[in-house]
Amino acid sequence: MSRDATFENRANVSRPQPGRLRRMSDRLLAFGDQVAAVLRPRSLAGVPVRDGMGLSGGERAQWVGFDAALAWVIGGLLALGLVMVYSASIQLPDNPKFENYSPTFFLTRHILSIVLAVIAGAVCLAIPLRTWERAAPWIFVAALILLILVLIPGIGKVVNKSRRWIPLGVMNFQPSEFAKLAMVLYAANYMVRKMDLKESFMRAVLPMAVALGVVGLLLLAEPDMGAFIVIAMIAMGILFLGGVNGRMFLIVTLVLLGTFVLIITFSEVRRERIFAYITPWDPKYAQGKGYQLTHSLIAFGRGEVFGQGLGSSIEKLHYLPEAHTDFLLAVIGEELGLIGVASVILAFFWMVRRIFVIGRQAIALDRVFAGLTAQGIGLWMGGQAFINMGVNLGVLPTKGLTLPLMSYGGSAILLCVIALAVVLRVDMENRQLMRGGRA
């Protein structure tokens, strides 16, 4: 026998037959599934990996992940906010108003708020969007009840002449923050239910306008004009994104603008704020209604391009009121300069843009509620950040709104993280659908 024939015979003996090859392949696949079952984390980013994660029948759920870049940006804003809140509040105990507080009092409470927010966000990340959709009307009713309770003496806590908080021990809960999330969910659910009637003003737009009016009256009774502006922006934005007739949208917008003008006209305090915003350096306002704005502008001026250095702000030393809450961006501007402020603005811009992309993907996948919910949260984060930054920079009149994810405030941090966890859940379900699963 020739040498070539010998090699050919050996190759034929060692080559598996088709049936044998199939059995070997099945065994390898089964072994791979067993190894994956052992190595696959039972919980990742707060979402248990198990059968039935939005799937039907015996279809096996697999971890499809979520937008890691978005999660990192959210975490980065939380971390920078924590550092800047500590920097802005460390000197507050020198003020007689806070003389019983330790230098780390606000830092400790802010850390607690972030921990609670992350835990709550992880829980909400595991809740399917269909559950949020079913619960949306009841969440809105709960928000209305809380807005009523906070107005009752003995339940609501008065701070700076405003009754906006319900003391809960570990934090002062602000129902207006919960109302923002409730309005996002309710408006998205409402548009899904009224999709076939969106051309009718009486049956599509008017009921939402009434709901918004009730929320507005409760918020103005606290008073909390800033929260009302944000909630109105959320409701109107979702109506517009949901495809409401342009003429009806314009009419409602004009009515809202007229309402805000009347509120300002008949409120001396708000009217003075507008005048102080226009001429903050006027001696009449510089030590009154324009005091915060002038010192905020001084802080930005001192920061220049690269800032005075972390912890080196002068304005936070009792010159700039509410430096750790409403005017945190001014402290960032003074200590980290134009570079720090621009980085924060770009981070918010990227985050909001990414949220809208996720919402658009959901709508393209015929998940209208999920898409409108994500885009409503994008309007909330972007709109509130824009207003806070505009107030700090003197572009908008002074208004008590915190910078999302960064300013000191327990319930604000909690609800922002929960809302963003819902967005990550939308992205998870989008990925599951695009890989052939069911959300």
Automatic annotation (TrEMBL):
The yes or no answer to whether the keyword Nuclease is present is: no
Q: Where in the cell is it found?
A: Cell inner membrane; Cell membrane
Topology relative to the lipid bilayer, per the entry, is: Multi-pass membrane protein
| EC primary class | transferase
Keyword Isomerase appears in the UniProt entry:
no
Pathway listed for it is: Cell wall biogenesis; peptidoglycan biosynthesis
Catalytic activity as recorded in UniProt: [GlcNAc-(1->4)-Mur2Ac(oyl-L-Ala-gamma-D-Glu-L-Lys-D-Ala-D-Ala)](n)-di-trans,octa-cis-undecaprenyl diphosphate + beta-D-GlcNAc-(1->4)-Mur2Ac(oyl-L-Ala-gamma-D-Glu-L-Lys-D-Ala-D-Ala)-di-trans,octa-cis-undecaprenyl diphosphate = [GlcNAc-(1->4)-Mur2Ac(oyl-L-Ala-gamma-D-Glu-L-Lys-D-Ala-D-Ala)](n+1)-di-trans,octa-cis-undecaprenyl diphosphate + di-trans,octa-cis-undecaprenyl diphosphate + H(+)
Q: What EC number is given for this enzyme?
A: 2.4.99.28
Which keywords, in A-to-Z order, does the entry hold? Cell cycle, Cell division, Cell inner membrane, Cell membrane, Cell shape, Cell wall biogenesis/degradation, Glycosyltransferase, Membrane, Peptidoglycan synthesis, Transferase, Transmembrane, Transmembrane helix
Q: Which family does it belong to?
A: Belongs to the SEDS family. FtsW subfamily.
Role according to the record: Peptidoglycan polymerase that is essential for cell division.
Q: What is this protein called?
A: Probable peptidoglycan glycosyltransferase FtsW
Annotated source species: Sphaerotilus microaerophilus
| Taxon lineage | Bacteria, Pseudomonadati, Pseudomonadota, Betaproteobacteria, Burkholderiales
